[in-house]
Amino acid sequence: MLLRMTDPGGNEQPLLERKPGWGDRFVGPEDDPRAEGGFEGERATLVGYLRNQRLTLELKCAGLDAEALARRSVPPSNMSLLGLVRHLAGVEQYWFREALAGRPEPRHYRAGDNPDADFDEAVADPEAVADAWRTWRAEVDFAERFVAAAPDLAVTGHHDGEPIALREVLVHLIEEYARHNGHADFLRERVDGRIGQ
After folding, report:
1. Residue 13 DSSP one-character state
2. 44-63 pLDDT per residue, tens
3. Domain residue spans in the chain?
4. Rounded CA separation 27/9 (Å)
5. What is the pLDDT of residues 123-159, one digit of tens each?
6. Per-residue b/e over 53-73, b at no fewer than 16 CB within 10 Å?
7. φ and ψ at residue 192, rounded to 5 degrees
8. Are strands 12-14 and 19-20 parallel, antiparallel or unpaired?
9. pTM attached to this predicted model
10. 41-195 homologous superfamily
């Protein structure tokens, strides 16, 4: 049965059939790269849960072409899966390069005075997709190396002129990814019906 919804303009839109990947999960256990917990110690716990959130973003985008990744599938929102990748590349850049490492650089995917350029300019172009993933992976790599080299989680940087510890940044990034992975759940479901963890 094809369900229908009414969009904000009063037009009926078809809803896709919901398709779990495996049971109630996005992928089967043998294909899921995420850990089930069991981390020992504060650093391993924070790093492990952040890694799981990063992997969730990759899973939610897996198997989609440039058009599907750039599709703003939950109108009237300007969000797309590609926009989330671009946005989170900038988030990683700001917190680890600028706030903690003290290396300010122009923020990825911010054009002039448009703070939403990471979403607004996410276009259905294979090179734009490849660039977004390259940029995101480079920022994740920098962040992972920074955390691994830090003598402890009390290492401090600055955010808005105030000191902030690595520990707090890791918690914030887990929260940021969890929030946006919730968005990714809805975006992906509206692209092809795929649901799951």
Report:
1. E
2. 999 999 999 999 999 999 99
3. 41-195
4. 35
5. 999 999 999 999 999 999 999 999 999 999 999 999 9
6. bbbbbebbbeebebebbbbbb
7. -140, 10
8. unpaired
9. 0.86
10. dinb family like domain (1.20.120.450)
